[in-house]
Amino acid sequence: xxxxxxxxxxxxxxxxxxxxxxxxxxxxxxxxxxxxxxxxxxxxxxxxxxxxxxxxxxxxxxxxxxxxxxxxxxxxxxxxxxxxxxxxxxxxxxxxxxxxxxxxxxxxxxxxxxxxxxxxxxxxxxxxxxxxxxxxxxxxxxxxxxxxxxxxxxxxxxxxxxxxxxxxxxxxxxxxxxxxxxxxxxxxxxxxxxxxxxxxxxxxxxxxxxxxxxxxxxxxxxxxxxxxxxxxxxxxxxxxxxxxxxxxxxxxxxxxxxxxxxxxxxxxxxxxxxxxxxxxxxxxxxxxxxxxxxxxxxxxxxxxxxxxxxxxxxxxxxxxxxxxxxxxxxxxxxxxxxxxxxxxxxxxxxxxx
Length: 353
Hints:
Layout: E1 4-8, H1 13-24, E2 28-35, H2 53-66, E3 70-74, H3 76-92, H4 99-118, E4 123-125, E5 130-133, E6 136-139, H5 148-151, H6 156-160, E7 162-163, H7 171-180, H8 202-210, E8 215-218, E9 224-228, E10 255-260, E11 265-269, E12 276-285, E13 295-298, E14 305-313, E15 316-325, E16 333-338, E17 341-352
Helix pairs in contact: 1-2, 1-7, 3-4
């Protein structure tokens, strides 16, 4: 007997094929599209984002082709609180959030899963590119599309009620299958960037919500080298858009090294000063098997993977890299792997050389 599965359908090709595969496998599938914006026109359209009116129509058409019931769930208020307001608050605190990771954690696998289980569904299926077998999460064979990092914050309980039907497929295979199945989204471009920032201007979006407050840009010696209109407009590792008054003595580019929201200052310096080997994290979550071999860590979505060692002390996790990483930002997730298997994650609070 099949499972009762709620298929989250974003309107893209991945979730459409995922829903089709689950239905074809004999499960009782219902499609649901999440309405995440009170004003969908403010979200990106076409190739630029997700969660638009256009996407809801594409999701409905895909459900019709597959032959499954389809509903739209209004999650706008929850999305505003748990993703958008969290995004703004994190920047205000000098951290660099990952809204897609937060959306997976708080919306797709907390709010949606809770409602699905309450309605009698056994699991939620999504179009994420990651493998999930016996509750163990691991990387997709398509490394360019692998999303195990943004799923690394899910608990064991959430993973036990999740299905990722695309786990063994590459993006090219998914598109070819969508075309074969007659799904009109087969050639729809992937979404990019942040769906709730319509024009892609993150600094402008934050300025509207946090205001503009002139501040100083300092070099490592504390000398003023420029000015800005709000520290929240910067991220660690940023090189462009710094508007520094004078070049570095060696003529090389400067990068953002740190952001101090209380004093509203941004410190810049050479790329070498970004290199860190020690990373302090909080709230470790162990959602995979115990490490039995070498451990690696990924520090941002689609970022490099680093060999490392880790040590937990209470609610703190200390990670030591075997080679330096650059641009490590507080607020991002550190996801730990053994081989391709996720063993846990934690939130980065600071780093040092």
